[in-house]
Structures are given as structure tokens and as C-alpha cells.
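Data availability (excerpt). The following record was deposited with the supplementary files.
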Amino acid sequence: MSTQGYRVTASTGIHKGDRDYQQDQVSLMSHHHVKGCVMAVLADGMGGRSGGRKASDQVMMTARQLFDRYSPKDDDPVAMLSQLVMEAHMVIKLTAISSEEEPHSTIAVFILNPDGSCHWAHAGDSRIYHYHGKQLVKRTRDHSYVQTLVIKGELTEEQANVHPQSNILMGCLGTEKEPPINVHSIAKLQPGDTLMVCSDGLWHYFTEAELGSVLAALSAREATEFLIDKARLRAKGSGDNLSLAIVKVEAAPA
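Predicted structure:
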């Protein structure tokens, strides 16, 4: 897909890992009416066999509805993303009342506007990474117990990754507390930029430098397949559901 001065290539991937059922969901949506407007959304559901799937379903449904109504010319993208997080949270809480399970979900979502700006929001421990070439520009910070220890200087990122309580979340959708919402905006993406959104079932197995090397060296599709294969290998038979979407910005052919 080409837009002013650059071309976007993208890919999504999902794998059940070694779990019995799939609770992750990921989607890359092109806007129905606005050329060059794209949304990537990922949800990692939790809570019983069907609870987690219900929760991630609600995130996807809410994202589609709001994105359909979104107008890049008239609407504030950050306000729309914050609304998406809060609406999905409310819908998941209502689902919980009508079912026995406790459905929860993470969310990580970004919008690419036709003017080249990019905006993201997340709650939980699904991540968004922004690389330029193989260099990490920025990534989201998890709403997790171990991330709070990293921020306090009590753990390194490497120690946090192998910490026995690395899966304890401090905030996500569907809980009693309102979800934390972190947002970020990039004024204009440049050729050589890559955005990746992924669940903890994927990022858990890679350093930031490894991810940067893979994303810089391979096409979006090849990088997706490579990262899934490598994560599966490194999980050694105990891997979680994993999902990702990669969007690469390249200079448009003259």
C-alpha cells in the first residue's frame, strides 16, 4: 500500500503455542473509506477455557466498530484509542457478569494515519515496538509486577524476563480497577521504520537487539514466520499462545 512518499508492507502471525486453546487475537485493518489509514490491534485474553477468548473477542469487536467510525481528518486519534480501551474494558466486565469465568485481556493497538503520523495505546503486557533499522526507538512499558521492580531498579530487564512472577499483571481490561492506558504519538514515520505489536508469548523469548536485527534484515512476512518459529523452539514445549503484527515503512519506488 503506497501513500505520500512511502510504502507500507505488513504481516500478522498467530500460533497456539503449547496451549490447548487460542486466546490471543490479532488483526490488521485497512480503513474502509480512507486510503493509507491502518490499524493494528492485538489482545491476549485470560480467564478459563472460553473466558479469555470472549475477552479478546470483545477487544476486536470494539476496535472494528470504533475504527469504522474514525475520521483521521476530524477525530483525535489518541482520544479514539483511549475510548477503545475503556469501551472494551466495560464490555468485558459486562460479559463477566453473565458468565461464570473471569475474562480479562491485554490490548496493544496502533493507528497509522495517511499523513504518516502514528499513535498507539496499550494496557497490560502486550507490547508495541518502534524500530528504525535495527535500532530501538521506543517500546511500551508493561503494566506488570516485574516492570514495577525494573522501574525501581530492583531487577534488570533480563532478570524480569525469567522472574517466576513475570506473568502477574498490575493492570489490564476486565478487572475491578479501571485499566491503565499509556499512549504515545510519532509525528511522522520515516522510511526504515518498523512497528511491531506482539503478545508476551512472543517477546518473552527475545532481546530488543535480536528483534531489531530480525526486523531490519527480513520482510514483514519473513520476520513474522522467523520470530514464531524461533519462539516455538526456545519455548521448549511450554510456550504460551503467541501473536504479532509487523508494519514496515519503506521509501516508495520512484
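Summary of structural features: DSSP finds seven helices and twelve strands in the chain.
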